[in-house]
Amino acid sequence: MKQIAVFGASGCGRGVMPLVRAQWSKVLDPYELVFVDDHPPASRLNGHAVLTYAAWLQRPASSRHMCLAIANSRVREALVQRCAAAGVQFFEVRASNVVQMDEVYVGEGAILCPFVTLTSNIRIGRQFHANLYSYVEHDCVIGDYVTFAPGVKCNGNIHIEDHAYIGTGAIIKQGKPGEPLVIGRGAVVGMGAVVTKSVPAGATLVGNPARPLTR
Fold it and tell me: Tens place of pLDDT for every residue, the chain, 215 residues?
């Protein structure tokens, strides 16, 4: 029997589980679908068992498959290493109404929530999260472990480097061919921010137009 798991039993994981359930219901091979969490909040949630990672690994399995429903990108990266060492395979979660057009590459382990749109000539790295109603327009390059909260508007000719986090409702202005707008590695774009210029690595921007956060 295949062992299928959503890692994370918090809000993100519980939001992703119905998509995973619908996706795996089309598979003819026998399987078991559970939540995995290092600190299980309950023994069962939304009709599925909640197991620690160690307990899940002890279950008999012909193969193991995991999606990482963890918003924190650094934690996602650490979990990839941990799971890969145990031979766990990662699968993409994709809502049935996701729109994907021409020449789009999406790396391993993505979660594409309902109403996400990917237009044309886009390259996306590993373990990408695109939450509800987000879009990526033409000629964008997105790195590994990038997270989009709901309603992100990523317009054309934008490069987003690894581990960047883009907050709910943020708008990123379109770049130019050969001169993309760049969101640097590990940058955070706040909720509702309107980004009109490139963002340095590690910076946090808020507001309209977006400016560095001062404390």
Answer: 999 999 999 999 999 999 999 999 998 889 999 999 999 999 999 999 999 999 999 999 999 999 999 999 999 999 999 999 999 999 999 999 999 999 999 999 999 999 999 999 999 999 999 999 999 999 999 999 999 999 999 999 999 999 999 999 999 999 999 999 999 999 999 999 999 999 999 999 999 999 998 76
pTM of the model: 0.95
Q: What HEC string does 55-81 produce? A: HHHHCCCCEEEEEECCCCHHHHHHHHH
Q: Which residues pair with 148 in a beta bridge?
A: 130, 166
Buried residues in 81-118 as b, exposed as e (16+ CB within 10 A): eebeeeebebeebbbeebeeeeebebbebbbbbebbbb
**Distance (Å, whole) CA 129 – CA 205:** 20
> What residue spans define the domains of the chain?
2-91, 94-206
**Structure tokens that stand for 207 in this block:** 């507001």
Catalytic residue among 48, 65, 129, 138: 138
Q: Is 129 a catalytic residue?
A: no
CATH code of the domain made up of 94-206? 2.160.10.10
| CATH fold label, 2-91 | Rossmann fold (3.40.50)
